[in-house]
Write a structure and sequence with these properties.
The chain contains 8 helices and no strands. By secondary structure, it is an all-alpha fold. The N and C termini lie far apart (about 50 Å).
Length: about 210
């Protein structure tokens, strides 16, 4: 049940993202038709993007949210019931705002903000409660080499160096993986770091003055 709880939260957040994409698709279609001189009348074909947006918002998300709320009672997740039913309440509010916005377009802004609130809380429930790795004596062993390279490259004892080093090495690693593979890509980065520290033994952001003595 815990896994189902997590996946439902992610599906709700994903559904909201799909709604945003469908709105963008509908808006693009409207602008395209307008630029082509197509008049908008009662006989004009319905906008596919807007139709999909309505289906997801009025049917898919409410169904997922209701199931999410029911599963939360059995998932045995600390604080999970509260988060799930907040999502359900926001979903109900979303439907109400959708109907009200037809007569008051300004309410459409609240409708959009509420959608992001649904995605945020649902996503938070899934991400915060999902387990990244199994607890074992070897926990974190796979990150030791990467952490060592980041600290050496960025500069020992320097927080900004660690941040810049992690970002730089992460991007470089993902760039090399498609061409050289995961193992060879990491070996290539390690070789480059060895060559780099021959020129700058203290890393990118070397500590200076009394900070080195400390």
């Amino acid at each position: 049940m815990r896994s189902l709880y997590i996946w439902l939260s992610r599906l709700i957040a994903l559904a909201v993202v799909l709604q945003v994409l469908f709105v963008a698709w509908g808006a693009f279609d409207i602008f395209k038709n307008a630029s082509d001189g197509v008049p908008f009348t009662e006989d004009t074909e319905r906008n596919v993007g807007q139709m999909l947006h309505s289906v997801v918002g009025m049917m898919v998300i409410p169904a997922l949210a209701l199931l999410f709320g029911i599963i939360s009672f059995f998932a045995k997740v600390r604080g999970g019931v509260a988060l799930a039913w907040i999502v359900v309440a926001l979903t109900v509010l979303q439907i109400v705002l959708a109907f009200v916005s037809f007569g008051a377009p300004v309410v459409g802004t609240l409708h959009a903000l509420n959608a992001f609130a649904i995605a945020g809380i649902a996503g938070m429930a899934g991400v915060a409660l999902s387990q990244i790795d199994n607890v074992s004596p070897n926990l974190g062993q796979g990150y030791i080499i990467d952490s060592f390279m980041v600290v050496v490259f960025g500069g020992v004892g320097n927080l900004w160096g660690t941040l810049v080093g992690a970002f730089t090495l992460g991007v470089a690693n993902k760039f090399l993986e498609p061409f050289a593979g995961a193992v060879l890509g990491k070996i290539a980065i390690l070789v480059l770091i060895i060559l780099f520290i021959q020129k700058r033994p203290r890393g990118l952001f070397a500590l200076k003055g009394r900070a080195v003595e400390a």
